[in-house]
C-alpha cells in the first residue's frame, strides 16, 4: 500500500512515497537556470513537483507513465501545495499496486464475478448459455473483464466498474422479466453480459482510462460484435437466426443512431435492454454527481453526462419540520 | 350484450342489433332520388349502411353519436359488406352497454382497483400516503379512474387502460426500489398513482376516445398539477418542500420538453419514474403492434408510436431446427 | 448613498465604504502565515481584498452575503487593483441601501406601478379586471413585483426590470389590439400583467439575482399557474372556461416546448402575446449588448441571449457623407 | 361578371357560363368510344365536365389554362355534380374578368395603394424616401404590386394579398416605432414596402397562383435584392453604407436560415421587422383557418402553416353563463 | 423472351404471355358469385386480371410470386386496361428469363465485372489486393454481385445496379487519387469494391427488390463487416492495423450516425470515399428523377431520395435565343 | 525579408527586426511606475514586449496595427520569452513585406493565376467564357484575388488560399465532368471561378484575416451575387435564363440553408459543385489538422471545422510488420 495519497498532503510535511509521472519536462528559471518540473499523481489527484539541482541523471531514467518513488517536502507556492524533490527513482513493478493509481469499485471483484457466473447457471436456452459461458470463461477475457471501467467519464468510470454495471443489470433483467412475462430472460441476461465486452479493448486502463486507437476507429459496439460473432461461430450448430438476434441486440443497445447504434431496437428484448442499460448508467452518473460537493447546498455538481444537476432530496426535505399529518379519524 | 359485432357480419345475413352512429347524411342517387347513408360502428369496427325508402321520419330522431337499434340485411357492394336497413330507432340507455362500443382491458377493473388501493396500504411516508389515499378515494375520481384509457392512440388505448398501466407501474416501482436502495419507493408509488390523473379530464371516453377542449388547451400534466396541488393544500400541515417535490415529479415525467414537460427530471425518483413510465408505455405499444396482422410473416404491423415495426421473435426462431448444442465435455 | 463604487477605485486611494461579501476565506502565504482574502462587490463590479494581520476576531463576525463597512487602501497587484484592509466590521441594516448593490431600472418604480394600475382601470371584462386587480393589490405581491428583475441574465436583468417590462407590454398590447381589431385587449393586458408573476418566487433577488430551489424545480410558468389559478378560484363565479383560457395563455407564452411551454399557443391572443413578450425581451437584450463596449467600433458586444452581436447603426451610418440626394425634377 | 359560380351549381340546372380549363383529355369508354373529359374551375372551386359526341373540332381549339364559354347541364354522378357539355368555345379576352377566377382581397386595391403612397410621404430620410418612391412609382411594378398574392398557400393567398399585407405592416411599423423610440421608422417602412417585391416575379398569378421557374431557382429574397440594389445604384449618391443596411434588412427578414435568410438579423430594425412580418403573416393564417368549418365546434381547421388548429374563442366563451362577478364592495 | 410487356398492352388485344403473380385472391360479385382476381406484372408495370368461370382448379396450382403463362383479352374497365383471362398455368422455370420481370442496368454485367477485376489488377498493396481478389472471386459471391441492385428505391434500384455503381466508383476513385496525391488509391478501390457487399444479403432480389429479415435486423454495413472481417482473418498474416483501417472505412462510409454509420470517418480515405459514394448515389437519383415525366415542363419528378425536384437544364436553356455574345474586340 | 521570426527567438538573444503591433497599452507597476506593454507579432506567432523607461515619445507615434522596427533583448519571464525593448520606431512602408506577417500559400500565386486563366481558355460556352474572362481580368479584382485567403479559420486560411482552392477546383471539375458525361463542364468551371469572389470583400486580409462590417451584414454569397450579376448585365445579350442558372449555382453552393444558402441545389451542376467545393475544403482542413502536433502519436490535432481528429494513417500502419502475404499458388 502506497502512502501517503496526494489529497492528504499537508504543508511542511516530509514524505516518501510512490506516484505516477503524468508530465515531465525541463524548464529554465528567469535567470536561465534549468530545473525539473513534473506532475505526479495517484487515484486521489495530482500535484506539481520541482527539483532544482542535480536532477539530470535521475531524470534520464524516468518517462511519462512511469511510476516513481520520491523523497520530498511539501511546500506551498501561490497558495497551492507543491513537492520539492530531494530524491527519486523509478519504482520496481513489485513495489506498485495499480489499484493505488486508479479509483476502483467499492465491491469485491472476485465476488462480483462469482455472481456473474451464477447468473449463467440458471439459463435455460442451451445455445445462449453455451455462448456466455464460453466467453466468460475465456482466460483472455476474465482478467480484463474484472478490471475494465464501464466508461472513461460518463458512468462507472473506475476499475471494476464494468463488472459492477453488468452484475447489476443481470439482477435487474431478472426482475423485469418476472414482471413482463412476455420477455425472454435468457436474451436479456445474454445482452447484459456481452453488451460491453467490446470495452475491454476500446478502453485502455493500465494507468489511466483512455481510448485505444482501435477503440476510436471502431467503437465497442463493432468490437464486441466481432468477438461475440466469432464465439457463436465457434459453437457447432449455433442457430443462424439466433445469431442474428444476438447481433441485433448488441448493435442496437445504444437505442439511437446518434449514440452509435447502426440499428434501432426492433426486438422486444432489445428495446427493454436498452432501457435497463440506459437507466443503470444514468443512475450511476447521478450518484457520481451527488458525490461531489458543488458549493450549492441543495444541489449536486453539474453532470455533463446528464446535462443538469440533481436535487439532494434528503437534505432538502429534512429541513422540513418533522410534523406528522393529523389523523383524520380523530377529527 | 349486443349482437352481432361488425367484424362478424357475413353476406346475406339478416340481423337485429345495436350500433353507434358515426356519420349520418342524406344523399341523392344519380337519378336525383334521396337516400339515407350512415356509418355505424361498435368496438370491433365500422360499416356503411343505406336506407332507400321511408327513412325521413326515422332519421329525424337520430344524430351522430347516438346509439341505434337496427334491423337490416348484409349485402356486398364493391366487394365490401354493407347494411341495407329495413328499420331502425334510437336505442334506450338501458339497452346499451358502453363496453360493447369501446375496446376494454382484459383485466377486471374492480380487481385492479383493489390492487391499487393495496399498494397505498404499505406506504410509509404519512404525507404521501394521505395524499394518494385522499385522491384514490374521491368519489368524483373513482369511476373515471376505473374507466379511462391511458391514451387516445399511443398505448393502453382502451377502457381501463389507464388503471392497468398504473397498477403495472406500482409493481414495477417496488421492484426497482428494491434493486436501487437509494430510491424512495413512496415517491415512486405516488408518481405512478398520480402521473396520469389529468387524463381523466384531458380525454373524453364516453363513446369513443377523443380530447376535450380543456384537454387540448391545457394537457394532462397541467390538469393533474391542479388536482394534486389542491389535494396537498387540503391536507393540513403538508410540508411545503414535499409539495414542490411532488409537483416537480408530475411536471417532469415526460422527460423532455418536446413531450410537454416544462422541466426535465432533476430528482432521482423523477428520472427513474420517467424511465418506468416510458418503458411500460412502449412495451404496450409493441404489444399492440404485434397483435395486428401485418401481412409480413416475421414482422408486426408498423407502430406509429414507435416509428418502426417489431420482430415476431418466437415465430422467427421456431423455424430454427431444434438441435441442441453438443456437450463440449464429450469432445 | 455608499461611496465609492468599485468601478471608481484608483491606485493609492484611501477609502471608507460599504460592500457586499461575495467570498471569504483564510489562506496561507508561501511562508505559511495565514491571511484573510475576501471578494467584495457592489452594483458596479467586484474587487479582491486582503488583510494580513489581526483579522481573526473581525473575520469571525462576518459571512458570505453580509454587508461590511471597510477602511482600506487601493493597491495594484499584478496590474489589477486590490484592497489592503485596515479595518472592517459588519454593516448595520440601516446603513445599507440595497439599491447600491444591485443594478436597477432607470425608471421610478412607484410611477411604473401607478401606470400598471391605471391599465387595469380601463379593462371591460369584469372577471379579468377583478382577477388582475386582486393580484396587483395583494400586499404579499406588491413589494416583490416592484423589486423583481425580469430575468437573471437574459433581459431586464436588474431590480424593477420585471415591472418595466410589464408596463411596456401593456402599452404595446393596447396598440396591437387597436391595429388588429379581432383581438381581445383585456386578455392581452391580463397576459402582460400575470405572465411573469411566477418570477417573484422563481428568482431570489435580495443581494444578487439567482434561482431559488423551488424556482429550479418548477419554473415560473408552473409557479404563476398556481398563483393565478388560486386567485381565479377565489373569485366566486369566475367562469370555468375563462379560467382555462387564462391558464392556456400563461402556460403557452414561451411559444415553444423547448423553452418550457407545455402547450403551444392555440388561442389568437396567446399567439400574439407570445410575439409581444418575445419582441420586448429581445429588444431589451439588444439594448444591453449595445451598452457594452465590445472593442469593435461598428458592433455591440456578443449577446449570449441572442447568439450574435448587433450593428451600431447610427455610428455606422454617420460615417456616411451627409450628402442629400439630387432633386430629380432638376435633372 | 361570370355566372354561375361552381359552388352554386345544383342538380339538373341548365347553365351558360365561363370557366378556366384546368385539365383536358380524351378518354375511351369501356366500349372503346372516345369522349372528352375536362376539369373546369373558377375562384369558388372546380368541377368535372364530359362531352360524349361531336367534340373533336371544338376540343382542338382549346388548351389547358384557356378560358371557355360553355353551355351544359348539371348531372349527379357517383353523388357528385358533373357538367354534361352541349356546346363550348374559347372565350374572348374581353369576356373574362380574371377576378372571377382567383379569390381576391376584400379591400379596394386602388385605395390600398393610395394608403401605401401616403406612407411614403411622411418619410424623413431623403435617400430611403427616394428609393421607395422610385420603386412604387415604377410602371413595370405598379400593376403587379396591386395584383400579387402574398403567398401561394401560407397567408394572404389571394389577389391583392401582398398589398394588403404591406399596408398593414406600414401602419404597424409606425405604432411600434412610436413605442420603441430607439427605432428608425423610415427603415421599418422601407422594409415593409420592399420586403416582398421579389414575390412579383417569384409567383405567377395570372390564372392560378404558382411559382415561376426563376422563382423556384432564386426565391423572392434574392429576386428583390436584385431589384432594390439596382434601384439604389440608380440613385446618384446613394450612400454605400445605407445600401448595405437596406440589403441586410431584406436578406435577413425571414429571421432564420432554414426559412431562406442567408443572414440572421443583426440590425435592430431588421430584428423588429422580422417579428412584425411574422406576426402579421401568422395572424392572417389563423384568420384563414378560422374561416374554414372544421366540423369541430370549438376549433378552427388545422392550419398547415401553423402546425395546429386554433380555438374559436368567442364561441367557446359564449357558452359561459353571462353572470357578472359580485361587487366586492358590497360584501 | 416474354411478350408482350404490360406497358404495351392495348384495348381489345388477344395475348399469350408470361407474368409474375403479385397478388391473388378469390372475391364475390355483388350477386355473390365467386371470381378470381390477380395482379400480374413484369418489369414494365402491373395490371389487374380477372377470371369469371372455371378457375378453381387452375388457381389451386398457383401462388403469389409464381410465374404464370396466360391466355387473355385486354379490356377497358373504368378507363383502365384489365386482363380477362381465358386460360393460365404455372410457368416452367426454363420458360422464364428473370430479367423480364425486374428492370436491369443498361450495361452488360459480364463486361462490368471484367472491368471490376481489371481494377484489382493494378493494386499495389499486396494485402488489399489479396483481400478484394479473394472476395470478388468467391463463387458464392460472384453471381449475386452481378445481379444485386444498389438499393430498393434510393438509387441504382435495378438488377446489376450495384455492380454499375461500384465500377463507376472505382474509376472515380482513381481520378480523385490522381488529383489529391496524399490519398492511398488502393484503400479507395478497396472501399469501392467492398462497401456494399452486405447488400447481397440485405436485399432480396429474386422477383422483386425487398429486404430480408436479417437485412432489416442488421443492415448491410454490419453484414459486410462480418463478410470482410472473415476474409481478412482467412488471409494468413493480414496486418492487424490494416484490418482495423478497412473495418473503419466500411462502418463509416455512410458519413453520419443517422444514416447508420456507428463511426464518423476519421481517416482521410474514409472521408473521401464517403463523398464519392454519396455523390454517385445522388447523381443516380437525379438521373432517375429526370427520367420521369413530371408534367411540369422545366422540372423533373420530385425525388424522395433528394427531397426536391431538379431543373431540366438543357430544355430550359434551349428556349434561350441562340445569340452569340458580341466580339468585344470589334467594339 | 524580416528577421528574425517570433518562433525562432531564444533567450538572451539581442535582436533588431520588424513586427506588427497587435496590442499597445501603458500600465503601472505595483510601485505605481508606468511602463509600456505591447504584443508584437509576425506570421509565425506573437510575443510580449515591455519598455520600462523613456518610452513616452516613442509610443505616441505608434498605434495598434502599425508595423514597428525594434531593437530588443529576449528575456525569460514566468517561463515564457519576452522582449525587453531598447529602441523602436514606426516602420516605413518600403521596409515591410506583408507576406512576413501573414502565412501564405506554398504555391506561386502568379503561376496559379496563369493556370486559372488557362482554364478559361478552353471554355466552349461563349457567354460563360466572356463572363469569367471579364471578371478575372478586372484590375479591381486581380490583386485581391491573388491575395485573399479562402476563409478566416475553416480551410485554406492563408494568403493566396482562395486562389489555390479555386485552381484545384477547376482541375477537379474537369475530371468529374469527364467521368459524368451528362455534366456541363463550363458551368462547373464558372462555379469554381466565381463561387468565392464575394470573399474578396467579405474578408479583410491586410494585416490579419478578419471580417469587414459589410461582410458580416451580407456574407460572401450575397456579395458575389451582386458582383457577378452586374458583370452579366454588362454583357450585351447575356441570356436571361443562363443568368438565373449562374445565380442559382452561386446562391446554392453551400448546399444547406443553415450554411447560408437561401436555396438548395436544384440543378445537377449546382449539386455536383457543392460536393466538390465541400470535399476540397474538408480535405484542406484535414491537412491543416495533420500539420499540427497534437501530442497523441496516432492522431492529428482536433479540427474544429470537422468536429473530430484524424488518424495519421502512414504512421499508424508503418508500425505494422512489413511482412508480405504468402503466395497462395505456393501452398
Largest interface: chains, residues each = A-B, 53 and 52 residues
Distance between the termini of chain A: 64 Å
**Overall average residue pLDDT of chain A:** 88
Radius of gyration of chain A: 25 Å
The percent of residues in helical segments of chain A reads 25-40%
- Describe the sheet with the most strands of chain A: 5 strands, mixed, barrel
- What structural category arises from helix and sheet content of chain A? alpha+beta
Strand fraction of chain A:
15-25%
Number of helices of chain A: 11
- The best one-word shape of chain A is globular
Q: How many runs of DSSP E, i.e. beta strands of chain A?
A: 7
- List low-confidence stretches of chain A: none
- Quaternary form: homohexamer
Strand neighbour order, sheet with most strands of chain A: 1-2-3-5-4
Instruction: Write down the secondary-structure element order of chain A.
Output: EEEHEEHHHHHHEEHHHH
Amino acid at each position: 500500500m502506497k502512502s501517503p495519497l496526494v489529497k492528504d498532503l499537508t504543508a511542511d510535511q516530509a514524505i516518501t512515497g510512490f506516484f505516477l509521472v503524468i508530465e515531465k519536462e525541463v524548464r529554465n528559471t528567469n535567470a536561465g537556470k534549468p530545473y525539473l518540473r513534473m506532475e505526479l499523481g495517484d487515484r486521489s489527484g495530482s500535484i506539481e513537483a520541482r527539483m532544482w539541482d542535480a536532477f539530470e541523471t535521475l531524470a534520464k531514467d524516468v518517462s511519462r507513465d512511469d511510476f516513481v518513488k520520491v523523497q520530498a517536502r511539501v511546500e506551498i507556492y501561490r497558495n497551492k501545495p507543491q513537492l520539492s524533490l530531494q530524491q527519486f527513482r523509478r519504482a520496481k513493478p513489485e513495489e506498485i499496486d495499480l489499484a493505488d493509481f486508479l479509483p476502483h469499485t467499492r465491491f469485491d471483484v472476485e465476488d462480483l464475478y462469482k455472481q456473474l457466473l451464477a447468473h449463467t447457471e440458471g439459463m435455460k436456452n442451451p445455445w445462449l448459455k453455451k455462448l456466455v459461458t464460453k466467453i466468460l470463461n475465456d482466460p483472455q477475457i476474465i482478467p480484463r473483464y474484472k478490471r475494465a471501467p464501464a466508461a472513461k467519464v460518463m458512468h462507472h468510470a473506475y476499475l471494476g466498474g464494468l463488472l459492477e454495471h453488468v452484475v447489476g443489470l443481470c439482477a435487474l433483467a431478472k426482475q423485469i422479466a418476472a414482471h413482463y412475462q412476455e420477455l425472454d430472460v435468457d436474451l436479456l441476461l445474454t445482452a447484459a453480459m456481452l453488451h460491453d465486452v467490446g470495452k475491454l479493448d476500446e478502453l485502455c486502463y493500465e494507468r489511466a482510462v483512455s481510448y485505444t486507437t482501435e477503440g476510436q476507429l471502431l467503437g465497442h459496439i463493432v468490437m464486441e460484435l466481432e468477438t461475440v460473432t466469432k464465439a457463436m461461430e465457434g459453437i457447432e450448430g449455433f442457430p443462424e437466426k439466433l445469431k442474428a438476434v444476438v447481433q441485433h441486440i448488441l448493435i442496437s443497445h445504444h437505442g439511437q443512431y446518434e449514440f452509435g447504434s447502426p440499428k434501432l431496437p426492433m426486438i422486444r428484448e432489445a428495446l427493454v435492454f436498452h432501457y435497463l442499460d440506459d437507466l443503470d448508467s444514468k443512475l450511476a452518473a447521478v450518484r457520481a454527481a451527488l458525490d461531489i460537493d458543488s458549493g450549492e447546498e441543495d444541489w449536486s455538481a453539474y453532470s455533463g453526462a446528464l446535462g443538469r444537476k440533481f436535487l439532494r432530496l434528503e437534505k432538502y426535505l429534512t429541513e422540513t419540520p418533522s410534523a406528522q399529518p393529523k389523523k383524520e379519524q380523530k377529527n
